[in-house]
């Protein structure tokens, strides 16, 4: 039953299956009902599951997450949509002070199986607050789990795995890849547990680590490098908290070179953590320092220059070159 | 205006409040608000006496906690002194199936739920961060971030509706506690919007104790707080927060209104924080002694005692027995607080994630090894 669908449609299928499988699953957010969400990820779900399962909320992000907490205490499994990355901050307190700490505060007696879906990243020519990558804030917060999908098949399975999980999960969706197509086995089961990284392309000469929208960029860079005779191993982190760096360490011990790629600003980003950990674990295997290719330490710039801000194939290849030139 | 002025409301703020027991211990049979709602209580003699016992007991427990803090046995204590009537009245108005979402000061409500009063002391002693199951006690964990719990209560109340537990007299209702300062928080205003829009079965119980740490009410609002409800489309009513009967009657009516599927109510309990915000606060820096004295004359316990004595519902033997029993309960609490063991450091790694984390497991193991390396040494 493998179909070729877009990443956005794969999420829609995954949400539909989650709603079918468990009557306690709810979808809530701004415009998720009749409109189907601004990106149509929840398209048709309210029509089929009703206004009590797919809830159009008032326009208040803290309210979305705060009421989801109460619903979860009551036994529901809310899947909250934050409309855009830059709009999550009104809910920041509820996420980092309440969602993340309730299980700890209650000595394990309360579980908050809440999923917070956030379309993130740039590349869509948007105005301010619509292109950000805030994943490090949440990955830095104990008590939250953070994941990001990069392709339709993972999108389909990871959203369902996140909903089934009793942990609160912040689910970052690569919004500029919503329209990219790939095969999804709609009747299948996931081939990996949720919190695992995946080697998406094997190679022997250098390791490129990415997640979300940058996985495709990394794969394109690997393809270009192959034309120069360099075989790049590409790893899709998939889980940002906890990190699953076993496959990265294994890869770097083989290649001796590591480049980490993300859209978010470099300063104290996921790349810094990956670099530190790879250095600790693979010190004697490294032929060069771990390098980072990231967004710059500026507010997300105006759309007309975002192509220069975002890591692309050339910047990844440049970093690979620098690694070889060390 | 949806508020009623009591017949003997010389002590009432402008605009009045619902009062069923005056500071002089006089009963007011019933109060009908301008909105046409009549409030009254119909207690037996025993029930009046037990309310008095509740008030005395929670005040005595509170005094014990303040002493424990001063003796270095608690890191901090948030005293309820002066707010006993608001808490006991509203707490006793809850039915067993109702759910309460407290701040960090609702020790009196906790007591009325039949919960062992030691339950929050792990938090204040610093041995845990709370640690109870909200669903077991129908009493959420204490919430310290101001106003955050009003949204949790609203979501929970939405769940009550989804579960089909409203619309009948045996239904469930939810009560959210917060203070005057919290009414400035976005979360509280969002909770008002949501509960109105979704017709949630919830009572917002605001203890207006006149101060948010040092800031007086005038820094939070330019209209009486209960009138905020108008803007959100549900009733608001102000009560004499030092009158346990008014607190009971109005909360009971609002909870029944909610459980019947008629939506939210905002109750402003007009009261006074007789002590400091917490044991770390110094109220002499921001309020004058005469103000505190004027509120002493409105004490919630002495008015009920006067009433009981005047009506010959209780005598000195009864009052002495209540005091002695409360003292015994407080001393028992003290002993058990002192016996609370410090947690093992490695337990800080427990209960971060329901489903665990391999990274955290590795950190815990490394920490355990590090600690073990000092065993047998002088460290």
**Second-tier CATH architecture of the largest domain in chain B:** 3-Layer(aba) Sandwich
Q: What's the CATH C level of the largest domain in chain B?
A: Alpha Beta
Helix content of chain A: 25-40%
Quickly count the helices of chain A. Answer: 12
**SSE string of chain B:** EEHHEHHHHEHEEEHEHEHHHH
SSE pattern of chain A, N- to C-terminal: EHEHEHEHHEHEHEEEEHEEHEHEHH
The mean pLDDT of chain A is: 98
Rg result of chain B = 22 Å
How much beta of chain A, percentage-wise?
A: 15-25%
Determine the CATH topology of the largest domain in chain A: Rossmann fold
Radius of gyration of chain A, CA atoms, in whole angstroms: 19 Å
Counted beta strands of chain A: 14
Mean pLDDT of chain B: 95
Report the structural category of chain B: alpha/beta
Shape of chain B: globular
Task: Report how far the terminal alpha carbons of chain B are from each other.
Answer: 68 Å
Class computed from helices, strands and strand pairing of chain A: alpha/beta
Q: Report the sheet with the most strands of chain B, covering strand number, pairing sense and barrel closure.
A: 5 strands, parallel
CATH architecture call of the largest domain in chain A: 3-Layer(aba) Sandwich
Please describe what this structure looks like:
The complex is a heterodimer of chains A (326) and B (379). Chain A is of the alpha/beta class and 326 residues long. Chain A has twelve helices and 14 strands. Chain A has helices at residues 7-21, 45-49, 61-73, 92-99, 102-105, 135-139, 152-164, 214-227, 246-255, 270-282, 306-309, 313-324; strands spanning 2-6, 25-29, 54-56, 77-81, 115-120, 145-148, 169-174, 181-185, 198-201, 206-210, 232-236, 239-241, 258-265, 291-295. Chain A has a seven-stranded mixed beta sheet with strand order 3-2-4-5-7-6-12, sandwiched between helices. The mean pLDDT of chain A is 98. By secondary structure, chain B is an alpha/beta fold. Chain B folds into two domains: 31-338, Rossmann fold; 345-379. Helices cover 41% and strands 9% of the residues of chain B. Classes of the chains: A alpha/beta (326), B alpha/beta (379). The A-B interface holds A 52, 57-58, 60, 62-63, 65-76, 90, 93-94, 97-98, 101-111, 142-143, 145, 165-167, 195, 242-244 and B 101, 128-136, 140-141, 143, 145, 148, 150-160, 162-163, 186-187, 190-191, 193-194, 197, 350-355, 357-360.
């Amino acid at each position: 039953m493998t179909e070729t669908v877009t990443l956005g449609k794969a999420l829609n299928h995954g949400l539909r299956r989650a709603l079918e499988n468990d009557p306690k699953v709810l979808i809530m957010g701004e415009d998720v009902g009749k409109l189907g969400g601004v990106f149509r990820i929840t398209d048709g779900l309210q029509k089929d599951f009703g206004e009590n399962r797919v809830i159009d909320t008032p326009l208040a992000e803290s309210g979305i997450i705060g009421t989801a907490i109460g619903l979860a205490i009551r036994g529901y499994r809310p899947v909250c949509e934050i409309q855009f990355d830059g709009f999550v901050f009104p809910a920041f307190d509820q996420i980092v002070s309440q969602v993340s700490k309730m299980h700890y505060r209650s000595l394990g007696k309360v579980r908050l199986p809440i999923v917070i879906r956030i379309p993130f990243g740039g590349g869509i020519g948007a105005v301010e607050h619509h292109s950000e990558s805030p994943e490090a804030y949440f990955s830095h917060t104990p008590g939250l789990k953070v994941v990001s999908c990069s392709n339709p098949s993972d999108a389909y399975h990871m959203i369902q795995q996140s909903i089934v999980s009793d942990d609160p999960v912040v689910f970052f969706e690569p919004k500029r890849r919503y329209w990219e197509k790939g095969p999804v086995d709609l009747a299948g089961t996931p081939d990996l547990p949720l919190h695992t990284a995946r080697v998406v392309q094997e190679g022997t000469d250098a390791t490129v680590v990415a997640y979300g929208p940058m996985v495709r960029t990394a794969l394109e860079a690997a393809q270009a490098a192959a034309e120069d005779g360099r075989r790049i191993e590409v790893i899709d982190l998939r889980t940002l908290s906890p990190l699953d760096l076993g496959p990265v360490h294994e890869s770097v011990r083989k290649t001796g070179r590591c480049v980490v790629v993300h859209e978010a600003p470099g300063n104290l980003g996921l790349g810094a953590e990956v670099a530190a950990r790879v250095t600790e674990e693979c010190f004697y295997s490294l032929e060069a320092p771990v390098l980072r290719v990231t967004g710059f330490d500026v507010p997300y710039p105006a759309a007309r220059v975002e192509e220069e801000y975002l890591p692309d194939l050339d910047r990844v290849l440049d970093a690979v070159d620098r690694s070889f030139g060390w | 205006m949806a508020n009623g002025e009591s017949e003997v409301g010389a002590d009432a703020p402008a605009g009045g409040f619902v009062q069923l027991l005056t500071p002089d211990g006089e009963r007011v049979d019933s109060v009908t608000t301008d909105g046409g709602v009549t409030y009254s209580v119909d207690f037996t003699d025993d029930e009046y006496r037990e309310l008095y016992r509740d008030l005395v007991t929670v005040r005595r427990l509170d005094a014990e906690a303040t002493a424990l803090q001063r003796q270095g046995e608690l890191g901090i204590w948030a005293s309820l002194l002066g707010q006993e009537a608001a808490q006991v009245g509203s707490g006793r108005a809850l039915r067993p199936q109702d759910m309460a979402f407290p701040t960090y000061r609702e020790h009196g409500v906790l007591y009325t739920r039949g919960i062992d009063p030691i339950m929050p002391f792990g938090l204040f002693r610093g041995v845990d961060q709370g640690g109870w199951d909200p669903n077991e006690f129908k009493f959420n964990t204490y919430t310290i971030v101001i106003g955050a719990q009003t949204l949790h209560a609203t979501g929970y109340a939405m769940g009550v509706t989804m579960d089909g537990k409203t619309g009948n007299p045996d239904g469930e209702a939810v009560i959210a506690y917060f203070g005057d300062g919290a009414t400035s928080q976005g979360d509280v205003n969002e909770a008002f919007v949501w509960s109105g829009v979704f017709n949630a079965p919830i009572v917002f119980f605001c203890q207006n104790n006149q101060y948010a740490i040092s800031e007086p009410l005038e820094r939070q609002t330019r209209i009486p707080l209960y009138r905020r409800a108008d803007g959100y489309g549900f009733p608001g009513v102000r009560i004499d927060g030092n009158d346990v009967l008014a607190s009971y009657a109005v909360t009971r009516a609002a909870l029944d209104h909610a459980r019947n599927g008629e939506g939210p109510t905002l109750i402003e309990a007009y009261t006074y924080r007789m002590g400091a915000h917490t044991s770390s606060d110094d109220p002499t820096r921001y309020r004058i002694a005469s103000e505190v004295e004027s509120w002493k004359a409105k004490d919630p316990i002495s008015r009920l005692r006067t009433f009981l004595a005047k009506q010959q519902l209780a005598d000195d033997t009864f009052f002495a027995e209540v005091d002695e029993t409360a003292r015994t309960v407080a001393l028992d609490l003290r002993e058990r607080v002192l016996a609370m063991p410090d947690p093992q450091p490695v337990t800080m790694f427990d209960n971060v994630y329901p489903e665990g984390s391999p990274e955290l497991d590795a950190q815990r193991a490394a920490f355990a090894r590090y600690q073990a390396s000092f065993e047998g040494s002088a460290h």
